[in-house]
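Re-running the complex after MR caught last week's input typo. The corrected sequence lines follow. Everything else is unchanged.
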Amino acid sequence: MSEAAAPEDLWSRVEPLLARVERPARYIDREWGAVVRPIAAYRVALMYPDAYEVGMANQALQVLAGRLSTLPGVAVERVFVPWTDMAAALRQADVPLFTLESCVPVASCDLLGVTLPYELTYTNVLEALDLARIPLRASDRREGDPLVVAGGPSVHNPEPMAPFFDAMLIGDGEDAVIELVDTHRAVTGRGGSRSEVLQALAEVSGVYVPSLYERAKGGLRPRAGAPARVRRRVVADLSAYESPICPVVPYADVVHDRVTVEVLRGCSRGCRFCQAGMVYRPVRERRADDVVRDAIASLRCTGYEEVSLTSLSTADHSQLEEVLRRLTRRLEGTGIAISVPSLRVDSFTLSLARLLGEGRKSGLTFAPEAGSQRLRDVINKNVTEDELLATTRAAFASGWRRVKLYFMLGLPTETDEDVTAIGGLVARVMQAAREATPKDERGAVRVAVSVSTFVPKAHTPFQWAGQLPTAEVLRRQRVLRDSMPRKGVEFSWHDAEVSFLEAVLARGDRRVADGIEAAWRSGAVFDAWTERFSLSRWHEAFAAVGIEPSAIAFEPFEPGATLPWAHIDSGLAEPFLLLEWERAQAGHTTPDCTFESCTGCGVCGALGADIVLAGGERHG
Amino acid sequence: MAESFTLRVCFRKTGRLRHLSHLEVARACERAARRAALPYAVSAGFTPRMRIAFGPALPVGTAGEREYLDLVLTRFLPPAEACAALASVTVEELSPVACAYVSGKERSLAAALTIAEYDVHLEGGISHEGLERRIHAFVRTGTLSVEHKGKQKVYDLAEALPKEPLVVSCEDRVLIRMAVRMSERGSLRPDVFVAAALGPEVHVAVTRTDLLIEDQGVWRRPL
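Corrected-run output:
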């Protein structure tokens, strides 16, 4: 553990590099809300593995920073991955990666916490570790090195990144990070070694210590003291935790640059492809009073011009209309906008459209995901075409002129008929939008269509499915393009090659780590940035370490096979997931347990949690 | 039309924050006005915005000791109170220096401010010796041609530099003190001028020390 004395402040070596790099505001700290604590008994660096302007939007890190900074003697600092120009400048000048607030070496911190938001950030983690001069692999780290811990959505299949982390935290972090830090401090405080720390961490609920599991026949085998399955952490009541009121307000133009207030966590609509909808169960709403209080307090503290009410499905909140009415009233005449992302077609009502339409209009996005009712039933997207058209009419009658629709290609059982049905649906949405718009404004009507490729994810009913081979995805993209109306439609794709790599990294086991490291060594970094992505580099890297990526992405798992993530217990009962997989193939839908009766997913019982509805009951 | 009050704020952009761009500074100032709960006016229209206007942009990397913005308020607040409110919600490196009301009929800052004064610090132990002579000799060459974004721009140095630059020794550092006349066609960047006069190997740190209004040959501060 580091000394209480201040570690080296690198600023005088960092500043001369800034004249040579793009957007120096990424590296200078001193934003409103940033807290500098040069002296601390325990220093935590929290990293988002991408550039500053992407990472600053992450709410989870803000929540965790808020929780950790309440601990006595603990300093919490931000770290992002320097853009390629800055990385080159740091290497050339022999300056290690630094934290933003105190500008100290990341390697001098006691703990480096990394959120894994998405598979395509994996090489960025290795880039940051290397710039920080921390050994890439946990097995190479020594006593003085920081404890490197992962969390976030992608740890639900931890294996492809497992060798690079000392520990991985599965599930809600609010309480678990406190226990993790307390355990680390307690063991090192009594002179315990790194391996004793890891052993102690394995006993913290929700913490997975990869080095305590070894490959054996039929999966991973835990060593003594490590649990056979690591159970996901869940906080029972979100209202017990304040939303981050005074987050750091960036100078640079960042994505989602606004106040965000989490209104609910979890979604049990039960879309069968959706990992978030499975692994963040059960639904826990925050009370309207708390949401309004936190939104107003945070706007006052930050000075932002927009507040966003976030969740997996905000319009599902049982008190959303009340929240919007109260916020609209409080913000009248201020020019401050309210945005509600992640709207569902079937919960966007006329009164909601009116409420949202009163202030500054933010974007409107819906995700029908599939073009035909048959396929929407397969994926359990319980939304009908009539609902989508009615919602479109309501929105355009309330003043919206643009709507964005998300679809997915390559879903299990998809046929060409399902694909061309997307084009037909978009045409009818366009017609409904034009009809609801006054004649002289119809020229402005736009329907944006964004199409991605299905990536099978761990802990979902579709976890056994393989991804559709890329050549076939490309053929279906052509079929779709031919069926898509042109006028007023803005059409965009998610690159099929990117989705292929996502599938490899999402479905792989621990051997994939060698491929990730090889790809990074040959220059892969910022893979999520289109201009930086190169699939051929990844193919060469996989080949060099003897991995066949197509097999990992495309081959289905047999029900009953040991899955690479079998030792992670998300709380979902395997029979539930299997039954859902079977119902999908039969085209049978399953209702949402927050509106109707329990569907037996097993989460509440396994994790000791329950559905929390702020308004008592939901209206379907 | 409702009554309105134009508050002119003089502020600094210094220290680490000199690496901010003009847009970043503008956004930060708007957010500071909201945090300070100033009674700011909002424009009408589909996307209402704060009624705020800035003086000439400072480039990334250049500090400013007396920069300006005009903020329209919907009710009168004593200027000292407004300044104190802003100071309480800003970091030292980007904070108010002075506040006062100006007539709403006053020309915009961007149009009124035509003179900028700079201190150009030379880094790396350059000696004072002969510097002034070299600079003055360069000024007497008459013009400076600068390429910017693929376009060639020619500055008439007698027009762009209303005073002869001075070389000043300050503790153990040397700085060039100069005034630049700004126009709609652009204004000469002091770092570009110094690089042209002394060679590109000279590293500089630039601070804009003042922005002035030129009124019938007399220079005055806008506040």
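None of the earlier attempt is carried over here. The interface with chain A takes residues 15-17, 19-21, 23-25, 27-28, 30-35, 37, 42-43, 46-50, 60-61, 89-91, 93 of chain B (CB under 8 Å). Helices of chain B lie at 22-35, 79-87, 109-112, 131-139, 157-160, 190-198.
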